[in-house]
Design goal:
By secondary structure, this protein is of the alpha/beta class. An eight-stranded antiparallel β-sheet has the order 3-2-4-1-10-9-11-15, covered by helices on one side. A seven-stranded antiparallel β-sheet has the order 5-6-7-8-12-13-14. The longest helix is centred in the C-terminal third of the chain and has 23 residues. The structure holds 6-O-phosphono-alpha-D-glucopyranose (G6P).
């Protein structure tokens, strides 16, 4: 995780770096730092524990100008989040400075070797080992900085996105990547930016180059950009044009990104379906699968790999694809899948779901499945991300940048793509009737409007939030298509409000969680009037009999569950297969309001980061 940003040009670097760090703060916010380079002077370093705003207060009145610099916002891996472990890190002599996102896995052995040779480290980080190593190679092997960086990167095991500056080479900025993302912005008049994603760059230039793994970018003032591999092969930079709009990464009048993103869902789902769902022709086309259609149709099974909220979307996908298209589906935590020697064959289709497209475990699961010959399909939000590039085919979710750490609009966009996929498979395979197919298309087309209606008034959810904001535990129950939504509702609450919450299949409650139910336990039951409605009614009665407080998510006009529940939140009528797209909305809002009432930072919850690029 961690966010990195760097600037070389004619403007003052500090304000550009600070603004960039604010944009990247979703990637980690344990500490922050900036280093500025002025030719002929020592590199100046400003860093401290805490958020970017703490760094601003710390650097206030202290920093000197500089037209080249690097900035870092940290999510701690090696070493506690304190001032000394904050990035940037100096080399031993102070001649070099580095920012790093990733993990150097063999840092301990490299560190020991350097310590045996008398070198003394100032921090507990793996990053400091890397910059010491580079300086050592420079000195001992008489190499120039670029060659020393290459040699060092050939010795390290792990992931990195780094930028290095050198006091002795004040016109040079070097970036490199493997595993962690890195994008280079190409401005006018020899102005360059390097960052973990395009958000710090977008207002200065739309021209970017995405670095591939084991590539180094060499930016020397007054010269053309050079890209080489760490084995010194020349590469030709390929300039992409960014499509992202600046407004999409700002709060747009909302108090928090999370609330803005919840409210964006009607638009993001519409954008997602645009060009895919043609309601006049009653047709779905998914451009991303056309080339692989026959392989997909003949796949023995589908394996979905993902983490966190994306894994919950995968579970909804399992219900959809098995139910509608009758293809067996397994949903795997990417982190478990990659280490348990899974059986994967060339006849498998693996779907990797990831908002960021950078989650290390999901990326590794994709590489593993690819090496076994499976066809890999990606469902990613971030265009040009590592997972999107590593897959054979895919469909972007087009939700726009998601900044709030707790995923909301990316989740509904993922579920929308999975619904479209299931419909394409089912229609082509003839596993659903034409009438059902058309009903689902019409239903899907109406989802954005229905969410819009639901979002118009959330007073009731706010009222319920106020009653239960001090609870210590929450239970979320759902069945069938809404079991994954129970998991997602519980995850949202625990992520941002720090209340312990568990999601459970409603009937499984009897096998454990029922023991916890008393008058202090709020139980959120997702009970739309479809599928196993009668069964869930019995589960509600079981909770009621033990004094639990029931918050029920029901279909408009429901009376049965409503008569038993303490509180009722209605969702509009829709097909059972589409209910997850509606039932998740009040759960996002419930988590949001409770977290706000508890004084939590909803956009940057403690200990979390949006993009988990470490295992
Ligand atoms: C982190 C985020 C979650 C996200 C998960 C997977 O834990 O906080 O919101 O669901 O990573 O991320 P991905 O980008 O792969 O969807």
């Amino acid at each position: 995780m961690c966010g990195i940003v760097a600037y070389q040009g004619e403007k003052q670097a500090y304000p550009i770096l600070i603004k960039g760090l604010h944009r990247l703060e979703y990637r980690g916010y344990d500490s922050a730092g900036i280093a500025l380079l002025n030719p002929g002077e020592d590199i100046r370093l400003y860093k401290c524990k805490g958020k970017v705003s703490d760094l601003e207060s710390f650097a206030e009145g202290k920093y000197n100008g500089g037209t080249m610099g690097v900035g870092h916002t940290r999510w701690a891996t090696h070493g506690v989040p304190d001032d000394k472990n904050a990035h940037p890190h100096f080399s031993e002599s102070g001649n070099l400075v580095i920012i790093h996102n990733g993990i150097i896995e063999n840092y301990a052995s490299l560190k020991k070797e350097l310590q045996n040779r008398g070198h003394v480290f100032k921090s507990d980080t793996d990053t400091e080992v890397l910059i010491y190593l580079i300086e050592n190679i420079q000195k001992n092997e008489g190499k120039d900085l670029v060659s020393a960086v290459m040699t060092a990167l050939n010795q390290v095991v792990g992931a990195y996105a780094i930028v290095i500056l050198s006091k002795d080479n004040p016109d040079l900025m070097i970036g490199a990547k493997k595993g962690s993302p890195l994008v280079v912005g190409v401005g006018s008049n020899n102005e360059f930016f390097i960052a973990s994603d395009a958000t710090p760059i977008i207002e200065y230039t739309r021209n970017v180059v995405y670095l591939d793994d084991e590539e180094i970018v060499i930016l020397e003032r007054g010269k053309e950009m050079k890209i080489k591999t760490i084995r010194n092969q020349d590469k030709t930079p390929y300039v992409h044009e960014l499509e992202m709009q600046l407004e999409t990464i700002e709060k747009g009048g909302f108090d928090h990104f999370m609330l803005k993103e919840i409210h964006e869902q009607p638009r993001s789902i519409r954008d997602n379906m645009r060009g895919r769902l043609n309601i006049d022709l009653r047709e779905v086309t998914l451009g991303g699968i056309i080339d692989y259609q026959s392989k997909i149709m003949n796949a023995d099974r589908i394996i979905i790999v993902a983490c966190g909220t994306s894994w919950h979307a995968g579970l909804v996908g399992e219900y959809l694809i098995e139910d509608l298209a009758r293809i067996p589906v397994e949903v795997e935590y990417a982190s478990e899948f990659r280490y348990r020697n899974p059986i994967i064959t060339e006849k498998d289709l693996v779907i990797a779901i990831s908002q960021s497209g950078e989650t290390a475990d999901t990326l590794a699961a994709v590489e593993l499945a690819k090496s076994k010959g499976a066809t890999i399909f990606g469902i990613c939000n971030v265009v040009g991300s590592s997972i999107a590039r590593a897959t054979h085919a895919g469909s972007y979710t087009h939700a726009g940048p998601e900044i709030g750490v707790a995923s909301t609009k990316a989740f509904t966009a993922q579920v929308t793509v999975l619904t479209l996929m299931a419909l394409v498979f089912a229609h082509k395979k003839g596993t659903i009737s034409e009438a059902k197919y058309q009903q689902l298309l019409l239903g899907l087309d109406e989802i954005p409007k229905k969410i819009e209606e639901m979002l118009k008034s959330d007073d009731k959810i706010r009222y319920i939030s106020d009653i239960y904001k001090d609870a210590n535990n929450f239970l979320y129950l759902g069945r069938s298509y809404n079991f994954p939504i129970a998991l997602e509702g519980a995850l949202k609450l625990k992520e941002i409000s720090y209340i312990h919450a568990e999601g459970y299949p409603a009937a499984e409650m009897k096998h454990g969680p029922i023991a916890l139910i008393d008058e202090n336990m709020p139980v959120v039951v997702i009970a739309p009037n479809k599928g196993a409605y009668e069964k869930i009614l019995s589960n509600v009665q079981e909770v009621k009999a033990r004094g639990g407080k029931i918050i029920a998510i029901v279909t408009e006009g429901d009376t049965d569950v409503a008569s038993l529940a303490d509180h009722v939140i209605e969702i509009p009528e829709t097909e059972e297969e589409l209910t997850p797209l509606l039932s998740v909305i009040p759960l996002q809002l419930l988590a949001y309001h409770i977290a706000i009432m508890r004084g939590c930072n909803v956009d940057q919850p403690r200990n979390l980061a949006k993009s988990v690029t470490v295992e």
